[in-house]
Specification:
Elements: H1 3-21, H2 25-40, H3 45-49, H4 54-72, H5 75-86, H6 94-107, H7 112-130, H8 134-147, H9 155-166, H10 173-194, H11 197-203, E1 224-225, E2 242-243, H12 257-274, H13 280-294, H14 296-299, H15 308-326, H16 329-338, H17 343-358, H18 363-378, H19 385-397, H20 406-414, H21 420-447
Antiparallel strand pairs: 1-2
């Protein structure tokens, strides 16, 4: 049995044990990385740790630390109420607002994880407060980021278009951008319908204090109804809680010096990441430390609220994927597919490899590896290069909702007041469905017709 096949089988075993024995998958993956790296790949400790995602570790810790402080001092509550006012109380519009914000950020040049790191904690705090499915809100944030991710001036767009130019393939920057935007819009619309979006429309508008407006009153009621749904969008009770609707309710958060400073810190994070190109994780930790120094009482418990189990899980799995990369398993699989003599079959298999690997590793990295592998059968002229590149781009990025990808990990870490084990499983199942369905659809729509 080849070393590459052994490494894939070990990954399957890790998944099975983690699922059936409730052992942290990250801890299992670290052990697997050590065993496979030392015994199969002949790697030393430095080679094994080469795949440790130090940058992602810092991003996860820094962002969850900063937003734990924001939750502790009430800043996220204030932002939630501000969002309600922005859409005139229509809770159903908030997921689409988050989709649009992250899409705009990536379209103008933000790295996708940076945009998600900025928006996801606010979006998921809103979801927790108003009983919106965290899966719905998290998926809208991630798909929004990917929807704008291939604009001609975006990071993903410029990298992929540069690879296409380097490989001397026909390219179309606008077609690439619109393909990704349309694919993510469609997926977001499906997710919105399936995970409670229509129920959000049925709630009507909320009053200025964030409670439900007159359209949600119980029959004969004189006040408003507060949302009474669980984190997965299902209602545990049909009993409405009636409260007085008044914009000056004491529950309405007000700006305090600590909240103003925290809002300034969040703005500084956006400017530092988007305008100054600073690291999101290091910037977030620095801002969190500054806030903690001035208001220690608000942040005393914030370190404990960092999603440490999620950090262990993600870093362990990605370290093992790094071992796979070091020993050539990913290249081995891609070259095996590209050698198939049927171009259309090779195309769909490359899309699936891009989706599966990208669910655990760098989306841009896998596109950079797979696009050159597609050059030999693209040169035969039976498949359009523009459609093939677009299909690979979509397949390799929509799967970033996986909890093992950077964006999915940020969503998992940012969700407050949820059963993280359950939310992790939801993200994993949803990511698995996306991996299973989207590459085939992208291939059918973009490759088979022969774009470009």
């Amino acid at each position: 049995m080849s070393p590459e096949l052994i490494s894939i089988l070990v990954l399957v075993v890790v998944f099975v044990i983690a699922t059936t024995r409730s052992v942290n998958m990250g801890a299992l993956a670290f052990a697997a990385a050590f065993a496979v790296g030392e015994l199969v790949a002949d790697l030393d400790a430095d080679g094994i740790f080469a795949g440790f995602p130090g940058d992602l570790f810092v991003v996860l810790v820094g962002v969850t630390y900063l937003f734990a402080i924001a939750r502790a001092n009430g800043t996220t509550d204030w932002l939630v109420h501000a969002s309600i006012r922005l859409v005139r109380g229509r809770v159903a519009l908030i997921p689409w607002v988050m989709f649009a914000i992250t899409g705009a950020l990536t379209a103008i040049g933000a790295v996708s994880p940076a945009a998600v790191a900025i928006v996801a904690p606010i979006a998921l705090s809103f979801a927790a407060r108003y009983g919106i499915s965290p899966l719905l809100m998290g998926a809208m944030v991630v798909h929004g980021a990917q929807g704008g991710g291939f604009s001609p001036i975006s990071i993903y767009g410029t990298i992929v278009n540069g690879i296409v130019e380097r490989e001397k393939l026909p390219g179309n920057e606008i077609a690439l951008f619109l393909a990704s935007l349309f694919a993510n819009l469609v997926i977001a619309a499906v997710v919105f319908v399936l995970f409670g979006g229509l129920k959000l429309w049925a709630r009507g508008a909320l009053a200025p204090d964030g409670d439900s407006g007159e359209g949600d009153l119980p029959e004969g009621g004189t006040g408003t109804r507060t949302p009474a749904e669980t984190g997965d969008g299902t209602s545990p009770s049909r009993t409405a809680t009636v409260v007085e609707a008044h914009p000056e309710t004491p529950d309405t958060p007000r700006l305090t010096p600590a909240r103003i400073a925290t809002l300034a810190a969040l703005v500084a994070l956006v400017v530092a990441v988007l305008a100054l190109d600073l690291d999101a994780g290091l910037t977030a930790i620095t801002l969190a430390v500054l806030l903690s120094s001035v208001w220690p009482e608000d942040s005393r418990k914030a370190v404990g609220q960092i999603a440490w189990s999620t950090v262990l899980l993600i870093c362990g799995v990605l370290t093992y994927v790094g071992v796979l990369d070091e020993m050539g398993t990913i290249t081995w699989a891609g070259e095996g597919v590209s050698g198939i003599g049927v171009p259309l079959l090779a195309a769909v298999l490359l899309c699936y490899i891009g989706a599966i690997v990208s669910a655990f590793a760098s989306s841009v990295g896998i596109m950079g590896a797979l696009i050159p592998l597609a050059v030999p059968f693209l040169a035969q002229g039976e498949i359009g290069a523009v459609g093939m590149v677009a299909a690979l781009a979509v397949s390799a990025t929509v799967v970033d909702v996986s909890p093992f990808s950077t964006n999915g990990a940020l969503v998992l870490a940012a969700a407050p007041d949820v059963d993280r084990e359950r939310f992790f499983r939801q993200l994993m199942v949803y990511g698995g469905i996306v991996v299973a369905v989207v590459p085939a659809v992208a291939w059918l729509v973009m490759v088979v017709p022969g774009w470009g």
